[in-house]
Each structure stands twice: as structure tokens, then as C-alpha cells.
Amino acid sequence: MLAVPTPERISTSSSVRADTRCLVKATEPTRIAIVGLGKIAHDQHIPAIGRHPGFSLSAIVTRGAGLPGFDHFTQLDAMLAARPDVTAVALCVPPQVRFGMAWAALSAGRDVLLEKPPGATVAEVHALTDLARANGRTLFATWHSRFAPAVAPAKAWLGDRTVTRADIVWREDVRKWHPGQAWIWQAGGMGVFDPGINALSIVTEIMPRPLHITSAELEFPENRDTPIAARLAFADTTSAPVTADFDWRQTGPQTWDIRVETTEGALTLSAGGAKLEIDGRTVDQPAEAEYDGIYARFAELLATGMSDVDASPLVHVADAFMLGRRIVTDPFHD
């Protein structure tokens, strides 16, 4: 059975497997392995798993040092063979190497959570979605910024309004957030679109009508394969203009803002979706808990045998590279 909750989000279900899981869930948590023990795994995934009663962190797959008290494997295949009780994996490796690991895990009957972006290419994501459906497994392509506290209220407010324009400004310091991470500058690493796709994941969630890119300018350091800045222009189905300004060279205070104007007022999402203003008035929000939200959603998907895969933010990045005018800028050195 194929369910399509929105034009862009595809969910798959298997009713037989869902029934079995509901019985298992009543007695014990899902044993999960983290694959790739980098900054995002340490800062977000491990604490969030520890806070959710439906999961038990049971293994680590990483070429470096593991974590005390957990089985440590240097290869995913070895973990899959040695730990059949580990039924889910969270892939926190760079997108360039994620596809093969996701394919192996799904083929071995495991459920898979993908860090953003879900793949290095759009075709990879479609292939994994098809495999998950064929094997009756759960695939969850996560977009952590969609779980920021102000995103759902912003979506609800915009739902019955007519957007007249929107502007995205996403500027941060790459040296602060990705120090020494060479992979992000290599082909497939996405460059400034690594943070920029967070903005796109929010915009594709809250806007009442779909967007498409109309033009793009991408600035590449002369010694790097991925852009350090990007300026994008979009339109929605009524031709309302939407702009995006992504830049990795901003020091000092960081800027993660989205402003949407409508015929009935305007809203501003700031701090990456943590804060919301409507017509200049602050709307109080709960504390940030993006990855807690991710694992709560993953637990729901596992219990019901569903998948949640929305590639639309990645599609916009791919379109930016297809339409983008390349501008060479100063070399970048860490």
C-alpha cells in the first residue's frame, strides 16, 4: 500500500509487519546502532537515543574509537552479521558514502534512519525508498530543522494565507561549525548547501504551495569543489518570489532567518526555526528538542511499519547546481 500524505512526502506501509512490531514494542525497546561517530552523533544522536524509552543504543560502527560499554565495529557488514538483535541503524556518515551502507542495512532486514541530506544524489534516495518498500522496512529521511519548535506553528499560520514573497538568509561561519571537515568541500559534500538545505527543509514544510528554482549563483573557492556561498531565486505556483542567501563566511552572530509576507500579514522565523514573530509580535515557543522529535517520529514509523522520505529539499539543491552560474572566488583555507 502506498500512502502519499503530501505531494512531496512519500510514506510506505506494511500492515503485517506493523502488527508484529506493536507486540514487540510493548515489551522491549528497539536496539539501534549508530554508524559514523562524528560530531553530530556525539552532540545529538547519542543524547536523543538515551532520552527515548523506545530505543536502546546497542552498537557503534566507526573506523575510529568507539564508546565504552558498547559493541564497537569498524565495518557495517560485520555488525549486521554479529548483531541480528540490532534491528535499526542510524546512518551519521557523510552523504558521499551513505548509499552503500543504507542499501546493505535495508537488504539485511534493518530499519534505517538517515541523517540529512538523505543522499548525495536524488536518484539514490529514490532507489533506497524502493528497496525499503520492497523489503517491508522503515526508511526515515530526517530533516532536523523541521522539528524546530516554531516550524509547525508557522506552517499552521501560513496554511490558509496567500504568500506574496519570502526571503531566506542563512549565514554562518564554516570554521565554527565544520572545523577541519574536508569531506564537506569535496564533490558530493554540498558545501554551503549543507546548512542551506536546513533552510530549504523548513521552507518546503511551511509554504502552502510548492516552489521551483528560477535562477542561482554559486560562489566556489578556487581551491574547493563545493560552493561557499549561493544566491537563489524561486517562484511558487502563483509566481510569488522567494529568495535565498546562503553564505559560509559570516563571523560573529550567525543568521538563520526566514521571512514570509502574505496578504494578511507577515511572519519571521529566526534562530533556525526556534523563534517566531507574527506581525512583529513574538510567539512563545517551547525549548528546542529537534533530535528528540526525530526519534519520537522514528518510533512512530517503526510501530506502524511506515516510511517517511521527502527528497524535496535535496531536489532544490540539485536544481541549484543544474541552473547555477558558477563564480570563482578567493581560496578557502581552514
Automatic annotation (TrEMBL):
GO molecular function, one term: nucleotide binding
UniProt-listed InterPro entries: Gfo/Idh/MocA-like_OxRdtase_N, Gfo/Idh/MocA_oxidrdct_glycsds, NAD(P)-bd_dom_sf
Record-annotated Gfo/Idh/MocA-like oxidoreductase N-terminal domain positions: 31-140
Superkingdom of the source species: Bacteria
SUPFAM superfamilies: NAD(P)-binding Rossmann-fold domains
Protein's UniProt name: Gfo/Idh/MocA family oxidoreductase
Species this chain originates from: Aquibium carbonis
